[in-house]
């Protein structure tokens, strides 16, 4: 069985992630919500449901950004000692926005790389 050829045309993974572009045609049709992929590109018909980005980016980014926000929280507490309600008003929206933004970028990059490299599920050949 021949290996699929990597695809070298179309937008870069960074462009796909930042602008929500289709990795095949470059139309701005990748996302239907903040982090939800649409089922199919309206311009070229590429089926996004065949790609398996998974939940890895969500857990990974939540831990990284959570650690950064805890560090920021401790730094603010130890330097300027703001009231707890002020920390909550600043850090909760910052956490939500940063996780959603980073998740959108990570999912877009992973889908673009999966498309570009013609990645597929591993199989053990029958011999």
Characterization of this structure:
- It comes from Sphingomonas oligophenolica.
- It holds the Pfam family DUF983.
- The chain is an all-alpha fold and 127 residues long.
- It has one domain.
- The chain is built from three helices and no strands.
- It is elongated, with a radius of gyration of 19 Å.
Sketch the topology as an H/E string, one letter per element.
HHH
Give the tally of structural domains: 1
Estimated structural class: mainly alpha
Helical fraction equals: 40-55%
Please report which band the strand proportion falls in: under 5%, 5-15%, 15-25%, 25-35%, 35-45% or over 45%.
Answer: under 5%
Regions with little confidence, pLDDT below 50 for 5+ residues: none
Q: Give the total of beta strands.
A: 0
Mean pLDDT: 87
Q: Which of globular, elongated, flat, extended, rod-shaped describes the shape? A: elongated
Largest sheet: none
| Structure annotation, total helices | 3
Q: Provide the gyration radius in Å.
A: 19 Å
| Euclidean distance between termini CA atoms | 12 Å
